Amino acid sequence: MGFYDCCMRCLGGVPYCSLVATLLCFSGIALFCGCGHQALTETERLIETYFARNLEDYITLAYIIQYFQYVIYGLASFFFLYCIVLLAEGFYTTSAAKQTFGEFRSTMCGRCLSTSFIVLTYALAVLWLLVFALSALPVYFFYNMDATCHTIDVLTETPASINQLCVDARQFGLLPWNAVPGKACGMSLSIVCKTREYRMTNDLYIAAFAGAGITLLALLTYTVSTTYNFAVLRYLGRKGIGARC
Protein backbone atom coordinates (compact mmCIF):
# COMPACT_ATOMS: atom_id res chain seq x y z
CA MET A 1 0.00 0.00 0.00
CA GLY A 2 1.40 3.39 -1.02
CA PHE A 3 1.60 6.55 1.06
CA TYR A 4 -1.41 8.11 -0.68
CA ASP A 5 -3.57 5.03 -0.17
CA CYS A 6 -2.54 4.85 3.46
CA CYS A 7 -3.50 8.50 4.02
CA MET A 8 -6.85 8.04 2.29
CA ARG A 9 -7.53 4.98 4.41
CA CYS A 10 -6.81 6.91 7.61
CA LEU A 11 -8.84 9.95 6.54
CA GLY A 12 -11.72 7.74 5.47
CA GLY A 13 -11.99 6.34 8.97
CA VAL A 14 -12.17 9.68 10.79
CA PRO A 15 -15.58 10.31 12.44
CA TYR A 16 -15.90 13.88 11.21
CA CYS A 17 -19.27 14.60 12.83
CA SER A 18 -18.04 13.42 16.22
CA LEU A 19 -14.77 15.29 15.76
CA VAL A 20 -16.57 18.57 14.96
CA ALA A 21 -18.95 18.03 17.88
CA THR A 22 -16.00 17.41 20.20
CA LEU A 23 -14.27 20.63 19.15
CA LEU A 24 -17.54 22.54 19.58
CA CYS A 25 -18.14 20.98 22.98
CA PHE A 26 -14.63 21.75 24.23
CA SER A 27 -14.81 25.38 23.09
CA GLY A 28 -18.37 25.85 24.38
CA ILE A 29 -17.66 24.35 27.79
CA ALA A 30 -14.44 26.36 28.07
CA LEU A 31 -16.36 29.58 27.39
CA PHE A 32 -19.29 28.72 29.62
CA CYS A 33 -17.29 27.45 32.58
CA GLY A 34 -14.38 29.90 32.40
CA CYS A 35 -16.40 33.04 31.74
CA GLY A 36 -19.28 31.93 33.95
CA HIS A 37 -16.98 31.31 36.91
CA GLN A 38 -15.35 34.73 36.61
CA ALA A 39 -18.70 36.44 35.95
CA LEU A 40 -20.09 35.07 39.21
CA THR A 41 -17.05 36.40 41.07
CA GLU A 42 -17.47 39.85 39.51
CA THR A 43 -21.20 39.81 40.28
CA GLU A 44 -20.49 39.24 43.96
CA ARG A 45 -18.05 42.14 43.89
CA LEU A 46 -20.61 44.44 42.24
CA ILE A 47 -23.32 43.53 44.74
CA GLU A 48 -20.95 43.99 47.65
CA THR A 49 -19.70 47.37 46.45
CA TYR A 50 -22.80 49.11 45.09
CA PHE A 51 -25.97 47.34 46.26
CA ALA A 52 -25.36 46.09 49.81
CA ARG A 53 -23.68 47.58 52.84
CA ASN A 54 -23.99 44.76 55.37
CA LEU A 55 -22.45 41.33 54.99
CA GLU A 56 -25.67 39.70 56.18
CA ASP A 57 -27.53 41.12 53.19
CA TYR A 58 -25.53 39.23 50.58
CA ILE A 59 -24.03 36.31 52.51
CA THR A 60 -26.67 33.94 51.10
CA LEU A 61 -25.89 35.13 47.57
CA ALA A 62 -22.17 34.57 48.23
CA TYR A 63 -22.83 30.98 49.28
CA ILE A 64 -25.01 30.38 46.20
CA ILE A 65 -22.31 31.79 43.93
CA GLN A 66 -19.70 29.58 45.57
CA TYR A 67 -21.97 26.55 45.10
CA PHE A 68 -22.46 27.28 41.40
CA GLN A 69 -18.72 27.70 40.95
CA TYR A 70 -18.19 24.19 42.32
CA VAL A 71 -20.88 22.95 39.94
CA ILE A 72 -18.95 24.57 37.09
CA TYR A 73 -15.82 22.61 38.07
CA GLY A 74 -17.81 19.39 37.92
CA LEU A 75 -19.39 20.28 34.57
CA ALA A 76 -16.03 21.00 32.99
CA SER A 77 -14.58 17.68 34.14
CA PHE A 78 -17.63 15.65 33.18
CA PHE A 79 -18.00 17.08 29.67
CA PHE A 80 -14.29 16.74 28.97
CA LEU A 81 -14.40 13.02 29.76
CA TYR A 82 -17.77 12.43 28.09
CA CYS A 83 -16.69 14.10 24.85
CA ILE A 84 -13.56 11.94 24.76
CA VAL A 85 -15.70 8.82 25.23
CA LEU A 86 -18.12 9.85 22.46
CA LEU A 87 -15.23 10.62 20.12
CA ALA A 88 -13.71 7.21 20.87
CA GLU A 89 -17.08 5.58 20.18
CA GLY A 90 -17.24 7.43 16.87
CA PHE A 91 -13.79 6.17 15.89
CA TYR A 92 -14.70 2.64 16.86
CA THR A 93 -17.74 2.56 14.60
CA THR A 94 -15.97 3.86 11.50
CA SER A 95 -14.90 1.81 8.56
CA ALA A 96 -11.31 2.06 9.84
CA ALA A 97 -12.23 -0.32 12.67
CA LYS A 98 -13.68 -2.79 10.19
CA GLN A 99 -10.63 -2.59 7.93
CA THR A 100 -8.29 -3.04 10.88
CA PHE A 101 -10.00 -5.84 12.74
CA GLY A 102 -11.63 -7.64 9.84
CA GLU A 103 -15.26 -8.07 8.90
CA PHE A 104 -17.37 -6.15 11.36
CA ARG A 105 -19.98 -7.92 13.46
CA SER A 106 -22.17 -6.06 15.88
CA THR A 107 -22.69 -7.61 19.31
CA MET A 108 -25.44 -7.23 21.87
CA CYS A 109 -23.00 -5.39 24.16
CA GLY A 110 -22.06 -2.99 21.36
CA ARG A 111 -25.69 -2.25 20.55
CA CYS A 112 -26.54 -1.68 24.21
CA LEU A 113 -23.56 0.64 24.59
CA SER A 114 -24.57 2.67 21.52
CA THR A 115 -28.16 2.85 22.76
CA SER A 116 -26.94 4.10 26.14
CA PHE A 117 -24.91 6.85 24.46
CA ILE A 118 -27.94 7.94 22.42
CA VAL A 119 -30.24 8.12 25.47
CA LEU A 120 -27.66 9.85 27.68
CA THR A 121 -26.70 12.37 25.00
CA TYR A 122 -30.35 13.16 24.27
CA ALA A 123 -31.03 13.65 28.01
CA LEU A 124 -27.99 15.91 28.32
CA ALA A 125 -29.17 17.97 25.34
CA VAL A 126 -32.58 18.48 26.97
CA LEU A 127 -31.02 19.42 30.31
CA TRP A 128 -28.53 21.73 28.65
CA LEU A 129 -31.38 23.48 26.86
CA LEU A 130 -32.56 24.49 30.34
CA VAL A 131 -29.04 25.66 31.23
CA PHE A 132 -28.95 27.67 28.00
CA ALA A 133 -32.24 29.36 28.92
CA LEU A 134 -31.07 30.11 32.48
CA SER A 135 -27.79 31.58 31.22
CA ALA A 136 -29.84 34.16 29.33
CA LEU A 137 -31.24 35.60 32.59
CA PRO A 138 -28.10 37.53 33.68
CA VAL A 139 -27.66 38.75 30.10
CA TYR A 140 -31.24 40.08 30.23
CA PHE A 141 -30.58 41.72 33.61
CA PHE A 142 -27.46 43.51 32.40
CA TYR A 143 -29.20 44.49 29.16
CA ASN A 144 -31.94 46.25 31.15
CA MET A 145 -29.35 47.86 33.39
CA ASP A 146 -27.40 49.09 30.39
CA ALA A 147 -30.59 50.47 28.79
CA THR A 148 -31.41 52.34 32.02
CA CYS A 149 -27.92 53.83 32.14
CA HIS A 150 -28.23 54.90 28.52
CA THR A 151 -31.50 56.65 29.34
CA ILE A 152 -29.83 58.43 32.26
CA ASP A 153 -27.07 59.67 29.98
CA VAL A 154 -29.66 61.04 27.56
CA LEU A 155 -31.65 62.78 30.33
CA THR A 156 -28.72 64.49 32.04
CA GLU A 157 -30.42 67.88 31.73
CA THR A 158 -33.40 66.85 33.90
CA PRO A 159 -32.07 65.65 37.27
CA ALA A 160 -35.54 65.08 38.69
CA SER A 161 -36.31 62.46 36.05
CA ILE A 162 -32.91 60.86 36.40
CA ASN A 163 -33.36 60.10 40.10
CA GLN A 164 -36.49 58.09 39.31
CA LEU A 165 -34.53 55.67 37.11
CA CYS A 166 -33.23 52.79 39.24
CA VAL A 167 -32.02 49.22 39.08
CA ASP A 168 -33.20 47.26 42.10
CA ALA A 169 -31.24 44.05 42.74
CA ARG A 170 -33.94 42.96 45.21
CA GLN A 171 -36.51 42.65 42.42
CA PHE A 172 -34.37 39.99 40.74
CA GLY A 173 -33.95 37.95 43.92
CA LEU A 174 -30.27 38.81 44.31
CA LEU A 175 -30.82 40.45 47.70
CA PRO A 176 -33.47 40.24 50.42
CA TRP A 177 -36.08 43.00 50.53
CA ASN A 178 -34.62 44.45 53.73
CA ALA A 179 -31.20 44.96 52.13
CA VAL A 180 -29.84 48.53 52.19
CA PRO A 181 -29.65 50.26 49.79
CA GLY A 182 -30.54 47.34 47.52
CA LYS A 183 -30.72 49.57 44.46
CA ALA A 184 -28.80 52.20 42.51
CA CYS A 185 -30.50 55.24 41.01
CA GLY A 186 -29.72 58.25 38.88
CA MET A 187 -26.14 59.30 38.47
CA SER A 188 -25.00 56.67 40.97
CA LEU A 189 -26.30 54.01 38.61
CA SER A 190 -24.66 55.74 35.65
CA ILE A 191 -21.32 55.67 37.49
CA VAL A 192 -21.75 51.93 38.15
CA CYS A 193 -22.37 51.28 34.46
CA LYS A 194 -19.14 53.06 33.56
CA THR A 195 -16.94 51.02 35.86
CA ARG A 196 -14.57 48.38 34.56
CA GLU A 197 -16.15 45.73 36.80
CA TYR A 198 -19.58 46.27 35.26
CA ARG A 199 -18.35 46.15 31.66
CA MET A 200 -16.27 43.06 32.35
CA THR A 201 -19.15 41.27 34.08
CA ASN A 202 -21.51 42.08 31.22
CA ASP A 203 -19.05 40.78 28.61
CA LEU A 204 -18.37 37.64 30.64
CA TYR A 205 -22.05 36.77 30.89
CA ILE A 206 -22.49 37.27 27.15
CA ALA A 207 -19.52 34.99 26.49
CA ALA A 208 -20.90 32.37 28.91
CA PHE A 209 -24.28 32.54 27.14
CA ALA A 210 -22.56 32.02 23.79
CA GLY A 211 -20.60 29.12 25.25
CA ALA A 212 -23.83 27.50 26.45
CA GLY A 213 -25.26 27.83 22.94
CA ILE A 214 -22.17 26.27 21.36
CA THR A 215 -22.33 23.38 23.83
CA LEU A 216 -26.01 22.82 23.02
CA LEU A 217 -25.15 22.71 19.32
CA ALA A 218 -22.40 20.18 20.07
CA LEU A 219 -24.79 17.95 22.02
CA LEU A 220 -27.31 18.04 19.19
CA THR A 221 -24.55 17.09 16.75
CA TYR A 222 -23.53 14.25 19.05
CA THR A 223 -27.16 13.08 19.14
CA VAL A 224 -27.29 12.92 15.35
CA SER A 225 -23.91 11.19 15.02
CA THR A 226 -24.54 8.59 17.72
CA THR A 227 -27.97 7.82 16.27
CA TYR A 228 -26.45 7.38 12.82
CA ASN A 229 -23.68 5.19 14.20
CA PHE A 230 -26.22 3.01 15.99
CA ALA A 231 -28.24 2.64 12.79
CA VAL A 232 -25.15 1.52 10.89
CA LEU A 233 -24.12 -0.73 13.75
CA ARG A 234 -27.54 -2.35 13.93
CA TYR A 235 -28.67 -2.60 10.33
CA LEU A 236 -25.60 -2.37 8.11
CA GLY A 237 -22.91 -3.96 10.26
CA ARG A 238 -23.57 -7.46 8.95
CA LYS A 239 -22.96 -6.22 5.43
CA GLY A 240 -19.49 -4.92 6.35
CA ILE A 241 -20.35 -1.19 6.13
CA GLY A 242 -18.80 0.98 8.80
CA ALA A 243 -20.25 4.21 10.15
CA ARG A 244 -18.55 7.40 9.06
CA CYS A 245 -20.17 9.88 11.39
UniProtKB/TrEMBL annotation:
GO terms under biological process: axon development; central nervous system myelination
Keyword Heme: no
Keyword Transferase: no
GO CC annotations on file: myelin sheath; plasma membrane
Gene Ontology molecular-function annotations: structural constituent of myelin sheath
Organism ancestry: Eukaryota, Metazoa, Chordata, Craniata, Vertebrata
Keywords: Membrane, Transmembrane, Transmembrane helix
Transmembrane segments: 70-92, 113-137, 204-224
Protein name as annotated: Proteolipid protein 1a
Superkingdom in the source lineage: Eukaryota
